[in-house]
Every structure is written in structure tokens, then in C-alpha cells.
Specification:
With 139 residues, this protein is mostly helical. The protein has one domain. Helices cover 76% and strands 0% of the residues. The protein is built from 6 helices and no strands. The protein starts with a helix and ends with a helix.
Length: 139
């Protein structure tokens, strides 16, 4: 368990900016800067999570592609409305979790880490839904 405690703590700490981006517009009113920060932070965290699944030289080609699949369309999504980008990102966090659960390493992870990954993915998904609502109905 000890080798996972830092991962669990950092995982929950990484959730704070997501929660802040949901709470800030509720307090001050929505803003384009908040929406951009949330989107960029979400892309960064998603890329980090997907990148952690990429074990160069230790996996099949198909598994390597699955690890980066949610990130590849990001550049093309930038031409779409913010709500569509956020919807892709929200779904992609679930994809990354599903890909992680399908790896052989998942069985070696501590149950608390597995639980944390599910909780964080669920909370991040809900944050995306709230921010989509804030972006579609700003006031």
C-alpha cells in the first residue's frame, strides 16, 4: 500500500483545479478564462493519464495505440464549440480508465488505488458536465 499512497494523495490533489473551475463561476459568474483554464487543465491531465499507460517496448502495438487514442483528436477538436470539446474530454477520461483496467498491471494495483481511479474519473466527468452547462447557459 505504501507505494500507492503518494499516487492516491496526488490524485486527489489534482482534483482541486477541476473543482475550483466548477465552483469559481458559481461564485463570480461564468467567464471565458475559466472555461479555457478548465479545458487546458483537462487536456493536460488526460494526456498525463494516457501517457502513463504507454509502456514503450513492453506492450503490443494495439495497446500502445489505445493508450494515446483519446489524445490524438485534441488538435482537431479545437475547431469545435467548447461544449463538444468538453464532452470528448469527459468521455475520454472513462476511456483511459477502461484501457487502464484492461492492462495486466491493473491486477497488481492496490484496491485503494483502483477505487481512487474510479472516484476521480467519476468526479472529473461530473465536473465536465457542470462546465458544459455553465458554457452553454452562462448566466
Amino acid at each position: 500500500m505504501e507505494k500507492f499512497i503518494n499516487h492516491i494523495q496526488l490524485g486527489y490533489l489534482g482534483l482541486l483545479p477541476f473543482l475550483g473551475c466548477v465552483g469559481w463561476p458559481l461564485i463570480t459568474g461564468s467567464s471565458a478564462i475559466n472555461l479555457e483554464f478548465f479545458t487546458f487543465y483537462s487536456i493536460a491531465i488526460l494526456a498525463f493519464m494516457a501517457g502513463n499507460l504507454w509502456h514503450a517496448g513492453q506492450q503490443t502495438y494495439a495497446d500502445a495505440i489505445k493508450a494515446v487514442l483519446p489524445i490524438i483528436p485534441i488538435a482537431f477538436l479545437s475547431f469545435l464549440p467548447p461544449a463538444w470539446i468538453l464532452a470528448w474530454l469527459a468521455a475520454s477520461f472513462w476511456l483511459v480508465l477502461l484501457f487502464e483496467k484492461s492492462t495486466p498491471q491493473w491486477q497488481n494495483y492496490h484496491v485503494d488505488y483502483q477505487k481512487m481511479r474510479f472516484v476521480l474519473t467519476g468526479v472529473v466527468f461530473v465536473c465536465h458536465i457542470f462546465v458544459i452547462g455553465i458554457s452553454v447557459y452562462p448566466e
